[in-house]
Amino acid sequence: MKKRISSLLMAIVMAAVLLAGCGQDASKETKEAGAEEAVAEEAAAEEAGAEDAGTENAGGGKTIAIVPWDMAETFAVDFSHAAEEAIEEKGWTCVVMDPKGDWAQEYTIIENLITQKVDGIIYTAIDADGANDLVAEVQAAGIPIVGYDCLASAGVEDAAVRYDDTKGGEMAAEEMMKALEGKEDAQIVIFEDDPSISSSTRRIEGFTGYMEENYPNVEIILNRSQDKTADGCYIWATDMITAYPDADGFFCYWSECTMATYNALQDAEKTDVYVVGYDATTEQQELMQSVGADCRLYASPGMSPSKMAAQCVDSLESIFDGSYKRSGPEDMVELSPVLLTAENAAEFDINQ
After folding, report:
1. How do 333-335 and 274-276 pair as beta strands?
2. Superfamily assignment of 2-6+165-303 in CATH?
3. pLDDT tens for residues 73-98?
4. Distance between CA 47 and CA 2 in Å, rounded?
5. What's the CATH fold of domain 18-163+305-336?
6. Predicted TM-score of the model (pTM)
């Protein structure tokens, strides 16, 4: 398989930390000098939020903190809301802390949660390697921590829940070739995985591995932008359309990039190019239903945020009552992705 790899690197801008009521990269060293004062103020705000959690905990009920990737993402919102419901059903209190996709902010948030002695943490690792030491700090404080989706690289959390992203990537590749009717010399553009985001790597490896085995003459173009917002992905897709005007398809491994790429193709009047996305969101489903079976957003493997959230809360409860102790990095709950397509969109339910 031919691979052409290029990278569009943009500067990473630090995002402010947001405290979200109950309702994806940088290393800790990326803090710019000009932002130090703002970061300090935001850290103080996070600490105040954690103090509120500690006050609630003083009443005897457990307080569980949810630290998703970025509440600007559909999956993070749905997961956090589902986790909140599951936590409150058990009579516990939930707080959601939003690092806005920034590792330094996530680090600060979790350190503050340690200080305030929450009873448990459910998080996703923005930096898979950096998370190893952070998880060790949480555990040293006697606080159980459950990882979901993107996990610490050493598998150190007290429990871990993820979807089989390699299988999801394989499903995406298979659907792409169905859309392209098995075109042997197809050219496919992929938003390249980020090494610090383990789930992205597994999805891309699943996709490219399927192609290598079944369609070795397909040309894969791997490229990425550091700006993973919807606007950033739209710009990326527009650049790729210009650079590769003969591309037959695009594979995007998360929801915001999927929709941004589809919209860029439509705006460029590239209506013969297929998109296979990921996350199987309501927005994608509604688009497929609206356009019908000929929709160029052809398929999207996905994972149920509700099922994942419920499993995380159940895992935390099993840690609390002593019925579960993780035996090692390979000991995790791995769920199977489901497939949304333009053909099944009318009856698709990601939570079934």
Report:
1. unpaired
2. Response regulator (3.40.50.2300)
3. 889 999 999 999 999 999 999 999 99
4. 50
5. Rossmann fold (3.40.50)
6. 0.77
